[in-house]
Amino acid sequence: MTSLGWAVSWHFLFGNASRIVNMQIIDATIFHPLLHILESVVELQTVTRVERPPQWPTKGASTYTRQQQRQSQYENQRQYESQYENQRQYESQYENQRQYESQYQRHYDPGDSLPPPPPPPEMPMLEPQEYNDPGLLMMELQRSQMWGKSSVEEVQRRQTDPAVIARTQAAAEKVMAELGEDPEFEESWIPYNSLYFTRAISQGAFGEVWLAQLENTQVAVKKILDEKKHDVKEIECFGEEIKLMALLKHPKIVGFIGVSWSDTQDLCAVTEFMAKGDLCCYLERRKGKLNWPSHNVWLAEDIAEALVYLHSLSPKIIHRDLKSKNILLDNKFRAKLSDFGISRKRSAEETMTAGVGTIYWTAPEVLMGKKYTEKADIYSFGIVMSEMDTCEVPYSDQRDNSGKELSSMKIIQLVIRQTLRPSFLENCPEQIKALADRCLNSNPDVRPGAPELLDILRDIQNDLQQ
């Protein structure tokens, strides 16, 4: 048999071995050795036929497919490297910041040139806006009240933060230097160790007042609240208040005695002590025992005299926080105006958010963020007249349909919409009601000026005495 014949035969046998055996075309006993060899070859081919993983390009894959696969792998690698680079940069910045803070905490000295680390962001406080919708105002007041109160954690942070301490010390030193250089304070500085503190008298949103002994005289000492001592703005405002108190000299304004400090943490103002306390507490104690002819009209005249003086200055001084708490009584139960902490530097928004109660005395134009004049004090005076008549906090008698007290926000909404005014008793003199009605008018131009207000009160006094 030729070579070609053997090749064809072997090709036939190898390619059809299984079919030959299964179909029994050839007797297996005759060709047993040959069939054994053929079956081994077929089994070997079956075992070695292994499929390649689908993710790897097969030998017959097109060039375009392989390029796509390589491009995908490259893109994944590039994204991974980008993420790694971002992480590395972040860790580098963190390490630099940590080293900087460590260096600052170890070696900082107020005299060094090393600047303090950037301070934490201040609590958000928006500038006063033009409010056309009372609903927007309510949202602003609620937000400001929430942020206006320092948390315990924030106070503790300010008391221990080296950067905050450095800034407040610098601010206090600046205020003290200005007071020391002012000729008005040359003879009014009081050694701090000559003040003997007795007890706390009152506390407001920004400061507290203590009863103290100066030689043989009882005096009132106003200090910054502990939680405000590390607030640069509070220190600056208190410095402005002290300067203003020293300038105001009138028998119907609480007298300024001097200023005192031993270090940057205890700056204080010393004033005359008003033995009978504030008008608010006095009205509460004397509820039902006061009337306009015998006493109230005299108190109203005292307050009006103080406003005439303030509004006659150049530039005019607007008190902006006129209420019964800031009207003090001496031993003869005559009234004097006090607390000028928000007469200058503090914004109208700070006035509104200093305390929920303060906004009851605030004029509508101030509440709405509009420009205002000294007539805002006249509106507050009208609210005080309601207090003196009812001996109650303004709007405390207001109820909703279910009998519950109206919320502060609801009251202010109604005031802005000109649908609510404070109450007066039925037996209140008509002249007093008419004057209060003018003072509480939503249009500032309709309200009387302080001189006219004083003249009207004197006329009312003469009428009531007859």
Automatic annotation (TrEMBL):
Signal peptide: none annotated. InterPro entries: Kinase-like_dom_sf (IPR011009), Prot_kinase_dom (IPR000719), Ser-Thr/Tyr_kinase_cat_dom (IPR001245), Ser/Thr_kinase_AS (IPR008271), Ser/Thr_Kinases-Pseudokinases (IPR051681). Residues 113-123 have a biased composition (Pro residues). PROSITE patterns: PROTEIN_KINASE_DOM, PROTEIN_KINASE_ST. This is Protein kinase domain-containing protein. Residues 53-130 are annotated as: Disordered. Transmembrane segments: none annotated. Residues 66-103 have a biased composition (Low complexity).
